[in-house]
Amino acid sequence: MAFNSLPIDALKMKMDEAVRFLSISLSIANAHTVDFYTRDVWSTFISVSPDEVLSAINSSVRAGAAEGKKNTTFGFCNTTKKLVDVSAILMAAKEHSLSGLEVCMQLEELMHDLKLMSGDIVAGERMDRCVVPGEFMNCKKSHEVRAMSEVVNGLAKCCKVKQVIDVGSGKGYLCTFLSVQFNLQVFGIDSSSTNTHGAQERNRKLKKFSKAYKKHSRAMRNQEAEPSNDGNDRTEKHSISDQEVRPTNDSTQAESCASQVQVTTDVSSKKAIECIADTNDCDGDGFFNMLSPDIIEDNSPRVHPSQLSEEEKERRKRENLERKTREGLSNCSDDSLFSPLTSYVTAETELKTLITELEDAVLVGLHTCGDLAPSTLRMFRAKQELRAVCSVGCCYHLLSEEFDPDRQECTDGVCGFPMSQFLKDQACFCGRNARMSACLALERVSAGGGLPMESLFFRAVLHVILRDHYDSFKSEKRVGNVYSKATSFVDYVRRALKKLDLDDSELPDDVIQNYHERYSHRMNEMVAFNMLKVTLAPCIEGLILLDRLCYLKEQENVSHSALVQLFDPLQSPRCYAIVGINFDGKGLSK
User: Fold this and answer.
1) Which stretches are tagged as biased composition: Basic and acidic residues (predicted)?
2) Per-residue pLDDT tens for 479-489?
3) Among candidate residues 582, 564, 558, 559, the one with its CA nearest the CA of residue 160
């Protein structure tokens, strides 16, 4: 598939197909596991046995198309609305996923098209991937940063810009990689000052290593190119001057003139949470493997804007403006600067008042949580200086929905879903539980990464106990992660009741254990039901992403847009990016 080759009318037809399927199957995804036994969820939605569901799911990879039962739609009975044909829903889910709808580009296809558009290669020419250093992060993050930076650099070349704005930049891994590897000037925006300061220190250390690494890299390339070199000829045949770090005798100046700009901001989105990440570090030699362990830091919680007072916001802004002045932006000889700022930012914020040296730039967001991902796309549409966008979202359960009857108020009156006028006209909504289901990783589960079924089972049975013995089983308080500390079901229940501030003195251990024994034989119902949720996850995620793509295609100033699979879903389940370009009279024509 070529960049921008999917017409909007064809996209809308695909979206209609997905909406029709989900309008029937979404009831399963919206059922809450906590209520599984108190509301008898299995009997309410399913008319087959758990063993039949699990057997069909386990054999679905080998199964071909099966003839659907009469009076059913996607496996659901048209009369009772219950699932009666497991094979039919599994087949329909596969057909209505992003891969089944055939709406995605692959990374290699996108990079080839970007190089053609920027004139880096001609049609049919072999394309080499960029040379990247080793990891200074875990395997998952390294995989994401490598792929994302390749796309961002391609967009920057295509649009003839040298600046990048990274929204939700976290610890600054992507920012640092873009600035060191591709010599781009990067402005990082994050809601956590802890993340910003950590990124600043990391970037300072990376600058000290970059010169030595690149010198070693050039020497190795020369050695490979001229194996018979007797050492007298010191001429470098393979220049990488575009990645050079210019030497300086003033180490203080080199450290203050770092290669990225980090802007700390309180972004207008729901509270961001850290996504589940693979913590196994990769092996390998290279630039980042030369770094000391103190450069690699754990993720820290982010502070939501609502938790900051107006005085604190002003104090942070003033403090960082003063720091920016002290660092002497205009006196630095390196164009890539590191200048942390604190500000409250929305899609309506004038970026040039926040970043005075801002020119045309590429806007990026790597795993921006909840409403921050759609806000990034709205910012791209609204700001003329933003020439391209590459947005990878996550945490769909934190999205606000305009047409969800149970929704809370959207931030600034603008909701995260739907974005497109096409789905707005249909008053489309998914529901929070369905969006939470969209966060499940089908590929990981299929590869043997099981769901935490015992903890889900414990929580569902606890809800029965709360219903039977307490009046506050609908309390606003949350049980939280007490399962990891519990030694048994009885211990779990007592810890949970304490967390809920409920008296457990009149609830003997044997009574608690009897609840476990009463429902343990029905645990396979919960396993089967949650596997159905996992099967539907790619379809829900797909609709959310297609809505974002449609939103870009509806904008007159967006000349190119596509949905691209950037990552391996086994390493990074939220693997899709929305990519857009706005030439608008600059560069190529629409």
Assistant:
1) 231-247, 310-327
2) 888 999 999 99
3) 582
